[in-house]
Structures are given as structure tokens and as C-alpha cells.
Design a protein that fits this description.
Helix content is about 15%, strand content about 25%. By secondary structure, the chain is of the alpha+beta class.
């Protein structure tokens, strides 16, 4: 199945959003309408790319907005950018999320005795290609690392694009250690220290960054998929998650595929609108004909290197 991204607004601004169009041409939720598995038997998953490798803008699926577009995270009214902690620049993998997963904040993880972070589960895609924001790719699951982020359970799935040249050689976490020496150690360093330049303490990474294997990671994915299913059956159980979708039959917040554009017209009138002519009232603006705006300039601080953050 093919999915396409629709950019609206100016990158590097509070208004910027990335919406998603499904295979049938209708607007969809990347959180709820894209299946977790592209091949369930082989355990090949869909991944929604939020942040391309080497970039700094902290983009994420907006779980509380209608149809969950990607937007840039905001803290104290300012857009968030991760710092460059030498020798790493921005995010060191393609970073994103597995659709139809959710780390339930009411569920206490048996490994850490901490609750979930209320987000879809995160993925670090370690292949060579730099994927675009909003790309939906197929990934092979290889393992997982566990970050305790401000007291919350925050699993990081290690995966690789199935089309990557190394994909055939990588089937479990030990293969990553063999074929890509140093990558898992760098991943541990990154998660432990990336908030330090912002004046925060080091993050706690479970068992000093020890990665769990593929089977363990698949079990984590299955657990968070079940938690998502429970959320869909009872959307009111989380006031922070918008469950509107057009494909999950058992969900009370399901709408028809034809209704999704109307929802966006109401929620984002500056981005989506009906044609003004009564004769053309059913015709909508052609989303694909509008090129994305040029990015707004960012502060030079975003490009600054921070030395000595990671101990030698």
C-alpha cells in the first residue's frame, strides 16, 4: 500500500503540519489508519518517519490533534531542536513511530516499574538512506533499547528498512553489533546525553544501554499494539489522544473516509477549504498541487556543536 505526505504551512514555524493520504486517496491518521504490519507473518512493520537522519527539528505525530498530523514539538512556546552533541549531529538515525501502537500511561512496565509515555512506540531506523519527513516505510525489527525518560517508559525499537543493502544480513541485534560496530554504543550515548546541553540531567537508559533481541522487541511491539487496541475500544480512556480514524471498525471515533477532509476543513481552515462556488461545493482544493513553503530561518544556535557532553 502506498501513502503520501501533504505538507502545509511553513517549516520551522508553529503552524507547520504534515498530513497523510492513504492508498484510496482519502486523508488518514498515521497513528491509527496505517496498519502496524505490512507483513504480519514475517513481522515486517510500517514505520512513519518523523525525523530524517542528521536533522535537528523534533518532529512528532500530534496525538491530540484531529487525524494526528506530524508537527514540531513545542516547549514553553518555542519550537524544539535537539542539540549537536559532538561527534553526533542531530538525530543519528531516521527516527519515527510504529502506527497502531501506544505506550499506555496507566500500564506499569514490569522491567522498570515505570508507566508508559502516552505515545506510539519509537523507532530508530539504521539503514543508509535518509528518508523524508512523512515517509511511510517497511522495516525489519532487530531489537530494542529502553530509555527511562523523565520517569516514563520509552522503548526505542531498532529496525532497518527492508530495501537497505544490509537488510538481508541483519536479522537480530547481534547482527547489528557485527555488521555495524559502534552504532549501538553511539545510540546509547545519544539517548543518555542529548538533553544535557539544555541543562537537564542525563537520561537513564535501562541496563546501561543493553539492547534486547528481536524476539523481545516483537513482544514489546505486540504489547503496545494491544494497548492501542484497548484505547480504540474505549477512546475516552485517554483525554490526551485523539482517536479519530476512518478504518478501525470497533472504534467509536471512526468516521467515513469521505468525512476526513471535512474534519480538516474545520480544524485547519487556513490549510483546507471547500471551493467557494456552489456548483463546485463538492470539489476541494487539490492538496497535491501546492508545493511546500520555503522553511523559515532558524537561529544559528541550532547548528552549534556542544563539546565535552559525552565523556571520553
Amino acid at each position: 500500500m502506498s501513502y503520501s505526505a501533504i505538507e502545509r504551512g511553513q517549516p520551522n514555524t508553529l503552524q507547520y503540519r504534515i498530513f497523510f493520504r492513504g492508498p484510496s486517496g482519502n486523508i488518514i491518521s498515521p497513528f491509527h489508519d496505517i496498519p502496524l504490519y505490512s507483513d504480519e507473518k514475517a513481522k515486517i512493520c510500517h514505520m512513519v518517519v518523523e525525523i530524517p537522519r542528521w536533522t535537528n527539528a523534533k518532529m512528532e505525530i500530534s496525538k491530540d490533534e484531529k487525524l494526528n498530523p506530524i508537527k514540531q514539538d513545542v516547549k514553553k512556546g518555542k519550537l524544539r531542536y535537539v542539540k549537536n552533541i559532538f561527534p553526533h549531529h542531530g538525530y543519528i538515525w531516521n527516527y519515527g513511530a510504529l502506527p497502531q501502537t501506544w505506550e499506555d500511561p496507566k500500564h506499569v512496565d514490569k522491567n522498570t516499574s515505570t508507566a508508559g509515555d502516552n505515545d506510539p512506540i519509537d523507532v530508530c531506523e539504521i539503514g543508509h538512506k535518509i528518508h523524508k519527513r512523512g515517509a511511510v516505510i517497511q522495516v525489519k525489527i532487530l531489537g530494542s533499547m529502553l530509555l527511562i525518560d523523565e520517569g516514563e517508559t520509552d522503548w526505542k525499537i531498532i529496525a532497518i528498512d527492508v530495501t537497505d543493502p544490509l537488510a538481508e544480513k541483519l536479522n537480530d541485534i547481534d547482527d547489528v553489533k557485527k555488521e555495524m560496530p559502534g552504532l549501538l554504543e553511539a545510540t546509547y550515548e545519544w539517548f543518555r546525553y542529548y538533553k544535557v546541553p539544555d541543562g537537564k540531567p542525563e537520561n537513564k537508559v535501562y541496563e546501561d544501554g543493553k539492547c534486547q533481541d528481536r524476539d523481545f522487541a516483537l513482544d514489546v511491539i505486540s504489547t503496545t499494539h494491544n494497548q492501542w487496541q484497548e484505547l480504540m475500544e474505549n477512546p475516552s480512556s485517554s483525554k490526551d489522544v485523539c482517536c479519530t480514524n476512518s478504518s478501525v471498525g470497533r472504534c467509536k471515533d471512526k468516521v467515513s473516509p469521505e468525512a476526513t477532509m471535512s474534519l480538516l476543513e474545520q480544524a485547519y481552515p487556513d490549510f483546507f477549504s471547500l471551493s467557494g462556488s456552489p456548483a463546485n461545493k463538492r470539489q476541494r482544493t487539490d492538496d497535491r498541487s501546492q508545493p511546500p513553503e520555503d522553511p523559515a530561518p532558524v537561529d544559528s544556535e541550532v547548528d552549534k556543536w556542544y563539546y565535552g557532553v559525552i565523556p571520553l
